[in-house]
Amino acid sequence: MVLKIFNIINGLWCQNKITAKLGLGLKRWIVETGWSGETVLNNNLSMPRLGLGLWGPREGAETELAVSAALEAGYRLFDSASVYHNEKSLGLALMASGLKREDYFVVGKIWNDEQGWLGPQEAMKRSLDNLGLGYFDLTLIHWPTRQSGLTWRALAQARFLGLTRSIGVANFSPTQLLALVEETGLSPQVWQMEIHPLRVRADLPPLAAAWGIQLMAYSPLARGRLKKNQVIGRIAQKLDRSFSQVILRWAWQRGLGVIPKSVKPDRIKENAQIFDFSLSNEDMTAITRLDQARSVLKPPFVFDEAGYVLASAQ
Predict the structure, then answer these.
(1) What is the tens place of the pLDDT at every residue in 186-208?
(2) Mean pLDDT, to the nearest integer, of 145-157?
(3) Does 84 qualify as catalytic in the annotation?
(4) Residue 312 has what pLDDT?
């Protein structure tokens, strides 16, 4: 809401390059000082940093109820993908909310067998039809493949055509991301990665900041692997907070976007209540030291020697 009011005033004020730059600087200050739950992407569009992950909920009532609970709790970003098979339910819940299209942010993804030059736009149109929407706010390449260079160019064209407002990548290593940018000359707005206290990825935030890319953590709660962790338990008890709130606050203070997933309304609400407390430097360090460089994923495919998904395993 703070950024929405600012954007109206800024549009009236910024009539030349100097005042436009001042306006962008003020907009970033609003975000960085915590006056907003949003971040400003490198294309000057705003994105909520807290969202609901939609991997797992089944099509139908389960997804619709989860999205409705999230909207009621203040979530405005929804992380979807065609391979999640619940796009229609997400669209119905958003439509039932009565919110204007510009008041929520929908992320879509291009699956491995949708990559290439023609596949991405066809996939996006199918997904948008399922969702009942005219555009995505952000579209990501879901996993790196040897077709990702073509896919990236196709997403850039899709952005030009209005199918998506921003583009990004998921699960790309720094080497893969740099190769993609060098091949195409196109930088992403968002870089989505598996990040949680068991997989801290201390190398990524400084890289993302240097490259001007917003880093977003999926599976930020390590898929329940930290429910009995003693370090997090002590901090949670000290602050009178839940385990998940402490973990999400840790990610938030690292500057990450976070997309926890749940289908339980009380848990969805709880996960959004991370803005009225903070972790000390000591608490942040203690959680970071839990790092085991350990993934909690089991991708249903295999990779080649450079970490790209093999075409035969998509």
Answers:
(1) 999 999 999 999 999 999 999 99
(2) 97
(3) yes
(4) 52
- Give the HSE-up count for residue 22: Cα atoms under 13 Å, Cβ half-sphere: 10
Q: How far apart are CA 104 and CA 92, in angstroms?
A: 14
The matching CATH number, chosen from 3.40.50.720, 3.20.20.140, 3.30.70.2730, 3.20.20.100, for 48-298 is: 3.20.20.100
Question: Is there a contact between 67 and 263 (Cβ–Cβ < 8 Å)?
Answer: no
Q: Which residues on adjacent β-strands are paired with residue 169?
A: 141, 191
Q: Residue 139: pLDDT above 90?
A: yes
Q: How far apart are CA 50 and CA 47, in angstroms?
A: 9
Measured CA to CA, the distance from residue 121 to residue 109 in angstroms comes to: 11
Q: How many CB atoms lie within 10 A of CB 147?
A: 23
**Dihedral sign, Cα of residue 215, residue 218, residue 223, residue 228:** positive
- Give the CA count within 13 Å in the CB-facing half-sphere of 149: 10
User: In terms of DSSP bridges, do strands 38-40 and 46-48 run parallel, antiparallel, or are they unpaired?
Assistant: antiparallel
Confidence (pLDDT) at 6 = 42
Q: Which of 75, 84, 104, 135 is catalytic?
A: 84
Residue-range domain boundaries for the chain: 1-36, 48-298
Give the ranges where the chain is alpha helix by DSSP (H). Answer: 2-13, 17-32, 61-73, 87-97, 119-131, 148-161, 174-184, 204-211, 230-239, 243-253, 265-272, 281-288
pTM above 0.70, yes or no: yes
Token pair, residue 122, equals 């066809």
pLDDT for the residue 25? 52
User: Of the candidates 144, 143, 141, 173, which has an alpha carbon nearest to the alpha carbon of residue 155?
Assistant: 141
At 40-96, the pLDDT tens digits run 999 999 999 999 999 999 999 999 999 999 999 999 999 999 999 999 999 999 999
d(CA 164, CA 32): 26
